[in-house]
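stuck on this:

***
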Amino acid sequence: MKPIINKYIYTVAVLLAVAMRLSAQTPADDQQRINAIKVDPAYLWAMGTSTSSAEDAAECARLLIGEQVELWLRETGIDDRDRIAGCVVKAKEEMSDIPTQNRKVFRCLSYVKKSDILSYTDSDQVLLVEFGGTDKDAAQVEAALPATEPAEVAEVAATTPDPVVAPAPESVPEPAVAPKTEPTPEPTPAAFVPTAQERPLLAIETFEQLRAFITDGYNAGSITRFGKYKERPASGSYHMVVYAPDGSIPARFRVEKDGTMVNLATGQTETMDAYKGNGAFWFIFKK
C-alpha cells in the first residue's frame, strides 16, 4: 500500500508543479532556466519526454539522472558501492524538476547540484539500492574420489616359442586404386546480420547518445518499455546496451526469450560476467 500512496503523492506533486509554473512563468522563462542549467558545470541534469503525461516524463528524467549521478561519482574517483547508492538516493531527494509542455509532448528537466550529492554521509537515513549487475558468489568444490586398487595383471610365462617358418608368399594381384575424391566442405554458417531496428544501436558510442536514443524512442513510441539492468524482464525478449564508467559503450545485445545474449557487433553469445563494473539499460522495441 505504501508504494501506491507514495506514487499518488508524487503524481499530485508533479501536477501541482506544472499548474504553478504555468501560472507563474512563461514557456520562455522555463526554457531560459533549462538552457542555463544545461551549461552550468555545477549541475547534473536529465531530460525526460513523454506523449502520455507529465508524470511519465518526470519518471523518465529521474531514472536517467540516477544513471548520470552514478557515472559522475565514478569519474570523481568514488568506487565504494554503498556510498554510490547512498549518494544517488540523496541526489533524488535533493533534485528539482522543471516540467514543460509543447502541444502533445510533455518534457521534464530534473537537475541537482553536485555539491548536494556529495553532502551525503554514512549517517544519512536513506534506502540503499543496488545499481547495475550483481556479482555472483560461486565456490567450486572438488569431489573426493575414493582410492581404487590397481587392476590385477595376469603374469605371462617367459617361454621361448619354437621358430616358425613362414610359407613362400603367393602372387596376389594388386587391387585397383580408386580415384581420389576431395572431401565435401562443410557449409559456412550465414553471417550474423542485425535487423533494421537493431542497426542504429551499433552507432551508439557514448552514454549521452544512449540517453538520447532511449528518450527519443520512448517519446516517438518506438520504445515501449525500458529500465536499468537490475529491473530487466524475467521473461521475453528485449535489447540491452552496456555502458562503462567512462561513458563509453562496450556492448549492445539482443536478449532472446531463453536469456541468450547475442552481441549485435559480432553475432557471438556472451554473458554479463565479461562486463562486471559496468551499467546497462534494457528496452523493448514496439513490434
User: Anything to note?
Assistant: The first strand starts at residue 43 and ends at 50. Residues 131 and 268 are 26 Å apart (CA to CA).
